[in-house]
Amino acid sequence: MAFITWSDEYSVNIKEIDRQHQFLINIINQMHDLVMTNVGESTNNTAIRRVFAELADYTDYHFRIEEELFKTHNYPGFKVHKQQHDQLVMQLLELQKRFLKNDASIIQGIFDFLKDWLLNHILVSDKEYTVFLNARGVF
């Protein structure tokens, strides 16, 4: 069973952004599966580290795409949304750093953070730009 399951409720009605959100969910699920199949083992697992790095890289890519849309269409909430992105990236990188130091005690915290961050960010912050961008023909 997937750790996070995509729901139409998460859609921001912009095909490319929805696809990216689904991809982020897939990466998180992949990482969760790897961790759960290696319970009790070191966080030094190469596959887990690789997926965590992919998550960090893809998150950065996704945020840049969203921010370009905001700039292109003069989204009035750009500054606040960018600050949220920056904060989330800092938190993710801090968790990754602790994970890479073999701090196994943070594993559950990582997944709690990821689920809360992704779903709350989509359902609250990202939903705020949906109407604005849709009104400008972005679907």
Automatic annotation (TrEMBL):
Residues 14-129 form the Hemerythrin-like domain. Pfam families: Hemerythrin (PF01814). The keyword NADP does not apply. InterPro entries: Haemerythrin_Fe_BS (IPR016131), Hemerythrin (IPR050669), Hemerythrin-like (IPR012312), Hemerythrin-like_sf (IPR035938), Hemerythrin_metal-bd (IPR012827). Keywords: Iron, Metal-binding, Oxygen transport, Transport. NCBIfam families: bact_hemeryth, hemeryth_dom. Belongs to the hemerythrin family. This is Bacteriohemerythrin. It comes from Candidatus Marithioploca araucensis.
